[in-house]
Amino acid sequence: MSTEILRYAAFTDTPEGGNPAGVVLDASRLDDAAMQAIAADVGYSETAFVTAADGHDLTVRYFSPLAEVPFCGHATIATGVAWGDRNGAGVLRLTTPAGLVEVDVADGVATLTSVAPSSAPLEDADLDELLAALRWSRDDLDPGLPPRVGYAGAHHPVLGAADYGRLADLDYDFERLGALMAARDWTTIQLVHREGPDCFRSRNPFPPGGVVEDPATGAAAAAFGGYLRELGLVEPPATITLDQGIELGRPSLLTVRIPPEGGISVSGAAVPIGP
Length: 275
Description:
The chain is about 25% helix and about 35% strand.
């Protein structure tokens, strides 16, 4: 029996924008090797596999072309909208390797609520190596956005750039950064520049996925929302937007809602990608 593989662009309303993800709504007969092979063949940064389904309760796993990852925001948005296209609006309960994630789906838009976020200090040695791999210096950093490692299902170091030009000219050492990220179990690097009180530009290097950069990263957006709340950089309840993927020609819009406590909500549209 052949496996139906759907392709959706998440955090966009056009197939040419956003972050493409593979979605397999029935992966119940697939083993790990088969899922990894499909993810590699699809070639997107992640493919989501629904390995079990009981009504609105789904079990989901995520694979990059190189390895399984514990959670992926844009593939979750894509899965929610793909499920909604088949079954209508509803609230899904996704059991993921990172924990339970609820996804509210309606009218081509999905809103995920992350597991409880947290952040931790970024050790000086790791910060120095990260900056060296990025070809940045400490002078490039925004003192109002202190370096941390954010978490909302996966780990993402957060670095704030004082000047947008630092993001625009991103040119990093792929092998060096990939080695550091593998050693520390980091999924992407959340590089941000604050453009206004509630608006940020973002770029996400993603060597562990075998790609230079992710054009929209829902898991990192959720981790960033938790980071802002924990450090008192927003007054909850708050809503921020992240513009990502613009430099890659795949503009993406992520809306992040930060409640006073609990999981962070990340919303975005998703659309099918044609054959």
